[in-house]
Amino acid sequence: MGDKKFTVVIVGGGAAGVSTANNMKRKRPEIDIALIEPSEKHYYQPGFTIIGGGAYSLKKATRNEADLIGSGIEWIKDYAESFQPDNNAVTLRSGDVISYDFLVVCPGLQLDFEKIQGLPETLGKNGVCSNYSADTVEYTWETLQKLESGTALFTQPPMPIKCAGAPQKIMYLAADRFRKKGIADKISVEFLNAGPGMFGVPFFAKALSKVVKDYGIQTHFGHNLVAIDGNAKQATFETTDAEGNKATLTKAFDMIHVTPPQSAPDFIKKSPLSDDAGWVDVNKATLQHVKYSNIFGLGDATNTPNAKTAAAVRKQIPVVVDNILKLQASQALEEGYDGYGSCPLTTSLSTVMLAEFSYGGKVTPSFPFLDPRANSAIWWLGKTFGFPFLYWHIMVKGFRIDIPHKASYVEKLVEEDK
Ligand SMILES: Cc1cc2nc3c(=O)[nH]c(=O)nc-3n(C[C@H](O)[C@H](O)[C@H](O)COP(=O)(O)OP(=O)(O)OC[C@H]3O[C@@H](n4cnc5c(N)ncnc54)[C@H](O)[C@@H]3O)c2cc1C
Predict the structure, then answer these.
(1) 364 and 185 in contact (C-beta within 8 Å)?
(2) Backbone Cα Rg of the chain
(3) Strands 41-43, 150-156: parallel, antiparallel or unpaired by DSSP?
(4) Closest Cα to residue 373, out of 418, 415, 413, 416?
(5) Tens of pLDDT along 66-98?
(6) Active site residue 129
(7) If exposure means fewest CB atoms within 10 Å of the residue's CB, which of 9, 51, 72, 299 is most exposed?
(8) Residue 312 Cα: closest atom of ligand 1
């Protein structure tokens, strides 16, 4: 395509990028926008949990990227490779240079499957599955259907990861399947988590401990998966006890659901836009880059300490769009993002615990009168119908719906829980 210049350039056309482009275009139809995105397919990743659990299909969770990009937005089908923020430019893998007045960086995060020794060779066979990638999610369901007895392991790597609840969501769906099939007593379900507890927010962690107990699931904290031998059906964990002592433990499995370690994409890590840990370094309330004022970041790629979810993205989009327009008009930026994120925890094949919270683990539900810790059939309908609708037809299309989330809805419950 050759070198080009646009008012707004967006890197990444996933949940954050394509929605931001479409929202910006709705707010300012005359603005010229380019979206740099290499993939032809766009996935509704929150659906991956229920695909793995056999309650949804990959087809339903997939769209052609071309059909999502609003008219008047230029799609640059290539990888962004490097950033030259002092020259307001991005270099593509093709070697073309794209210049901008404003840059939005949202290429998501990277799944580091290769950091677990032996995993790439065995993933997708030998009962080794993962909901985290479109290429492997259908094998989770295949594996769950085949298992009749033995040991089913579910792993969780160190944070941060996208949708921190997803490693355990699939475990509950599996345990419910085993129960419904009448084979629960023949299968030992175990959760092996590198972290110290069931969930980062104690209000929900306590409620999840009850779910675990009800299924008879064994939990192991401070257990980090480091190697898998698929043929021998053995998984090796590095364990850390309360005193910080490390050891190695090998466990046999009949199936293992692996949540891979995750990090910022390599091209972000080595760019001038990243912080020491490799993530895009932005102000956590305005989402403006801390060093380059005409650059913004949102979605999984940034260092904001929220739950990395599409629900967070929904609240971040208006902040980024409005702040770019404010900057263009030389107005003060809005500190509009409070860290909201949401994790619909599928606690069975017909119930969901809808965990919604903001920075600092503050519980901030969008709906009054409901106890967010309840295993609710309403939110199962949300998970399977409502949230996908909201994603494809509202957020991705660039519409805004502001459902306010409020700590005041649950102040009493949170107080009682302490
Ligand atoms: C198993 C699972 C369950 C989940 N469950 C939920 C849930 O229940 N609720 C919820 O809200 N969220 C959930 N999520 C998380 C949610 O999907 C992500 O937080 C969300 O997609 C983040 O949006 P994003 O745009 O930052 O990244 P993505 O949607 O991943 O998009 C990143 C895009 O950047 C592109 N890209 C990558 N590299 C480059 C490059 N070099 N140049 C240009 N483009 C590039 C990619 O091709 C991709 O299209 C789940 C995720 C998974 C995997």
Answers:
(1) no
(2) 22
(3) unpaired
(4) 413
(5) 999 999 999 999 999 999 999 999 999 999 999
(6) no
(7) 72
(8) 11
